[in-house]
From TrEMBL:
This is S9 family peptidase. Keywords: Hydrolase, Protease, Serine protease, Signal. Residues 132-400 form the Peptidase S9A N-terminal domain. Residues 458-669 form the Peptidase S9 prolyl oligopeptidase catalytic domain. GO terms for biological process: proteolysis. The keyword Hydrolase applies. It comes from Henriciella mobilis. The lineage of its organism: Bacteria, Pseudomonadati, Pseudomonadota, Alphaproteobacteria, Hyphomonadales. It comes from the Bacteria.
Length: 671
């Protein structure tokens, strides 16, 4: 078995880190998780004509921030936000030679730090102006690999950090996008994927990160390919092709012959990673014969599967195999909370993992000796920290303690889980943060992105600020199309059913109207990425019932989005949203486009965007801004020139939260 990097779980780690930041660019649960541009290069052929009224709105540039209509931030607002903005979390990255590596922010962005013992001082290891996307120790020790992009462009480069000398070696090709790095047990080879702008086909690369000249293409790919493990003898690589959240394919690449063999080519299944077992079989997570992803043993020769976890009616998310190949540690997403379990491969027995408070455990990772497992843990009222547990005794060790800016944690609000009915007779899962005191309280509906993401009870200092300082209730729905509730549920918004998820917001507004402690006349919708589309679509369809909206890096027109998103990801998004080249789909996109229905948006709208966003290009923000303004609507606008799909730099996030606060106070009528 190979010792893998934590890059496969970098999205979860990034989500945890951002969820603790007051002005996290996207709502909690949004993928930071899974390509430069500039305002002068925006391709927005359907942008509304600029009117005299628009020309009267001044566009102001302050440093890397470009803004319109945002008033000066009062010192009182900055001061009250300060504590919430300075919550500092920790994410477990990997075991190191003398302790663990964690990702945490000390300054502008998240960097890698070393912790040599439980609750000991962290020592910063990397020092960059851009956030580090993950870290993975060389199996032989002495160095670790990490990724970094520029200005949020997501063209990640791979680097090797020598812990003895501090030297850093870039081993990937500039101008390409790289990820899913996997170490071989020998420590002298890693494999990863490489994508190029405009090319939907990913190549599989291999080489010694310490010797960049050794890097070579070992398989010219077709589609989005991701290596996930290397056999113990270093001769085979298991590769996953991602097609959509509901379909993927598993291949074995023979490094000696070059053979690229698909397992079960005639079956439509969703897989989530794979590991080589001692006998050459694979351990993977798949939804075969189940609504949920189960851990299964997969025979690469015959394709036969046997399930280990079909008694668990939830998704198995992350998993790792002990160095001796006998024990599996895995996490289960139990409708939001995430628990840890252990599997004995010989007997098939499943046992409970360590006892933890209610919350979410992610990134489980055996140490080299196989006697301890490291992981990150976050609760709804406790920021993320790094932990480990003893496999034999299940004793938990806490390695870090998050800083909470001096806030009184006893005042933090616990979310309540509930279901609400929609027009089709379904129960939609959601949770709500109710502020202290009697209502009726204004309401912020926070909608996740993806669209196949899931809102989960991560700690969010944003939500705590809104509840404790603005007196707002925060309602967080998992509308149709959300992950975590089975493969049928996640498919309910596909293709021509896109507006079903928006209808679930309408049903939520109905539910809010039945709650005596909620003010249905003061409801604001908030969301990022696909959640930004949901904000815009909700403001089109329910304009008379919504007081305003905050759209962060949101899609304003699916056709222009698909035409302008980066080419390496365009086919992946077509699999979810539909192909804009199909006349029926094109007509449907026209019908549901917020851009083409912008005249229905008459309530205040705040649009927030990163200039270098490779996913939802900044043209999506510019064109909806122009359309709303053309129709006489009120729009605030914030563009960060050094950010991509959401804000990752603390100073930018701080200003975002300050501006959002002014907007919320104005729209919701709070002091």
């Amino acid at each position: 078995m190979s010792i893998r990097t934590t890059f496969a779980s970098a999205t979860a780690l990034t989500t945890i880190l951002l969820a603790g930041a007051c002005a996290s660019a996207l709502p909690a649960g949004a993928p930071t998780i899974d390509a430069t541009g500039s305002p002068t290069a925006f391709n927005a052929p359907h942008q509304a004509e600029v009117t005299a009224e628009q020309e009267s709105v001044e566009r102001v540039t302050e440093g890397n921030l470009v803004m319109e209509n945002i008033p000066p931030i009062p010192e009182a607002v900055k001061e009250r936000l300060r504590q919430y903005q300075n919550v500092r979390t920790h994410g477990f990255a990997d075991w190191s030679d003398d302790g663990i590596l964690v990702a945490t922010r000390f300054g502008e962005v998240s960097q890698i730090h070393s912790v040599t013992g439980p609750m000991m001082a962290r020592r910063q290891v990397t020092f960059y102006s851009e956030p580090i996307g993950g870290a993975a120790m060389n199996p032989l020790g002495g160095s670790f690999a990490f990724t970094k992009d520029t200005g949020g462009d997501e063209f990640y480069q791979g680097y090797l950090f020598d812990l003895a000398t501090g030297d850093v070696t870039q081993f990937t090709e500039p101008g390409t996008r790289n990820g899913s790095f996997v170490w071989a047990d020998s420590g002298d080879m890693a494999v990863w994927y490489q994508a190029k702008d405009g090319d939907p086909d990913y190549d599989i690369m291999a080489g010694n990160p310490a010797e960049p000249s050794s890097v070579r293409v070992i398989h010219e790919g077709e589609g989005a390919l991701f290596p996930v493990d290397i056999s113990a003898d270093g001769t085979k690589v298991v590769v996953q092709q991602y097609i959509s959240i509901q379909k993927s394919r598993i291949f074995v690449l023979d490094l000696e012959t070059g053979a690229f063999t698909e397992i079960n080519p005639d079956q439509d299944l969703a897989y989530n990673g794979a590991l080589f077992l001692n006998d050459g079989a694979l351990l993977t997570s798949t939804d075969k014969d189940s609504e949920f992803k189960n851990l299964v043993r997969l025979d690469p020769e015959t394709g036969a599967m046997s399930s280990y976890t079909d008694s668990i009616s939830w998704d198995v998310e992350g998993f790792d195999l002990s160095p001796d190949g006998e024990t599996v540690v895995f996490t289960v997403n139990e409708g939001g909370p995430g628990t840890i379990k252990l599997l004995d491969l010989e007997t098939g027995a499943i046992s409970k993992g360590p006892q933890m408070p209610a919350g979410i455990a992610t990134g489980v990772n055996f140490n080299a000796a196989g006697d301890r497992v490291g992981f990150s843990f976050v609760g709804a009222t406790s920021p993320a920290d790094a932990y480990s547990f003893d496999v034999e005794t299940l004793e938990v060790t806490r390695w870090t303690e998050a800083e909470i800016g001096g806030l009184d944690t006893s005042e933090f609000v616990e979310p309540e889980f509930f279901d609400y009915p929609n027009a089709d007779g379904m129960d939609i899962p959601a949770f709500i943060y109710r502020p202290h005191g009697e209502g009726p309280h204004p309401v912020i509906v926070s909608i996740h992105g993806g669209p196949e993401s899931q809102s989960r009870p991560y700690f969010s200092s944003t939500y705590q600020y809104w509840a404790n300082e603005l007196g707002a209730s925060i309602v967080v729905p998992n509308v149709r199309g959300s992950a975590g509730y089975g493969k049928t549920y996640v498919s309910l918004d596909n293709g021509l059913n896109r507006k079903k998820s928006v209808e679930d917001i309408g049903a939520l507004l109905d539910w809010i109207g039945t709650q005596p402690d909620l003010d249905s006349d003061r409801v604001l919708v908030y969301g990022g990425s696909y959640g930004g589309y949901m904000v815009l679509a909700s403001m089109v369809d329910y304009n008379d019932r919504i007081a305003g909206g905050i759209d962060i890096v949101g899609i304003s027109d699916f056709r222009t989005f698909l035409e302008n998103t980066k080419g390496y990801r365009r086919d992946l998004r077509r699999a979810e949203y539909g192909d804009e080249r199909d006349p029926e789909i094109a007509a449907f996109f026209e019908e549901i486009s917020p851009l083409r229905n912008a005249d229905a948006i008459t309530k205040p709208l705040f649009i927030i965007q990163g200039a270098n966003d490779p996913r939802v290009p900044a043209s999506e923000a510019e064109q909806i801004l122009a359309a709303v303004r053309e129709n006489g609507g009120e729009a605030w606008f914030l563009l960060a020139m050094d950010e991509g799909h959401g804000f990752r730099k603390k100073s930018n996030r701080d200003f975002q939260s300050e501006a959002e606060t002014l907007f919320l106070k104005k729209v919701l009528g709070v002091e």
